[in-house]
Amino acid sequence: MRKKINTFIIIAMMAGALTACGTKTGNANENGTATKGDTAAVTSEVAEDDVNTTEKSDKDSDKESEKNSDSSTASAADSSSSNGVIDTSDIFSNRDLKQEADLEGATSYTVADGQDITITSEGVYVISGTASNMSIVVDAGDEDKVQLVLDGVSITNTDSPCIYVKNADKVFVTTSASSENSLTVSGTFTADGDTNTDAVIFAKDDLTVNGMGTLNISSTDNGITCKDDLKVTGGTINISCEGSALESKDSVSVADGVINVTKSNDGIHAEDSDDDTKGYVYISGGTLNITAADDGIHATTIAQIDGGNIDITSAEGIEATEVQINDGTINISASDDGINAAAKSKSMDIWVEINGGTTTIKMGQGDTDGIDSNGDIRVTGGTVDVTGQSTFDYDGTATHTGGTVIVNGEETDEFPNQFGGGFPGGGGKGGFNGGNFDGSFDGQFPGGDMNGEGDGNFRQRPDGENGFSEPPEGFDKNFNGERPEMPEGFDKDNLPEDFDKGNFNKDFKNGGKGKKGENTTTEISTEEATEM
User: Among 8, 113, 356, 375, which is disulfide-ready with 382 (CB 3.0 to 4.6 Å)?
Assistant: First the structure.
């Protein structure tokens, strides 16, 4: 009996303990805090701290992940060529290629006339509104990444940049989806101390332009200037300027987006005047329509194109020390050289190499070259279609091991070479009324073209100025560039003592013509020549 009673008491005590525990745990889980018992309350507080710590840890992790994403590359979006001379593995980060900003915790500003907005710390800043004579100034820490989201902003300044990056690790200028943004500088730029702030967007540090909206830029000098690495990965950018549309010291890289340059001196310009090992242009995608008075694309070191649709109308289409085309569709209309490889950098070899893509070049009249290399030309793939009087000009060697080469509408396996220019017509076969010169003169002369055809009429003087429609009085249209025959018995080694050999040689090289039609050969009679 006693054993049964003891057993009953033990069971009752256990049941009570279980009930109490169940009540405390239920209150803590349901309400977040316990209504009874110190132990339950402590347990709840610890649990709440654990949740807060986890949330804080997650946020810190997200922030660190976002920070690190800028240094991580998105290989899936990388269309670089394995043949590329530039190492493109780490050009574009994930954040460069991300077209929408994370607006959680972002700070918003509305621009106002005459009131600068100065940003001094890392973060995302949304800018909107219309104003004049004000600047968005980024002056943050050396490790700070700042993202400016343009969400329907219009700024018109007289003499200062609309966006001025004084200091940061990196700045992103992102256009929000479907937004229209306009930045204009209408007068002469004023320097900031020793800094020549010469662009609507001027950055001393790395700059990336991306987004899903439109950015219109109008400038009396440069459109966008970056003193470090400049990247464009998205959005639509329309630029009209007097200087360079996109300019950078170290590099200009384009992954995607639409870039329309309707007016510029240079469309894209990469150059460090103090270091000729820097200054490359890399394009792997996007659509670029460039109109330029001078160069469409100018790089000190390398211009490498791995993709994209590029249309250039300019004096020179693409100019660099090394030009490499691996893919893409490129159309160039040029009045000087379509592609020009020259010694912009003394630390590199000079060459043009085409491994893929479709490159179409149409040249203007006169002394112009479709592809001009002061070194070599190599075509290993793709299609190269050149139309013009002088299609290829190279000082080194030209090799064609693959792909298709079309010259003036006809496919060929050989490269015609306009090496060293020519006499009339800018070519070795230049015509002076069909004359056969040795190609030592590279100007334009009377009525000649590269095929040696001409009518003897002056169309352009050797100094490049417009000449006469008719030859000068006394001009012999039948002159063929050959030395005139000397009188019978003439001995050039036995001349009279008073004979001016120097002037005679000058006249002799002029084909017997002295100053402006003066016939010096008649000054020596046949009789005198016989006596010599």
Answer: 356
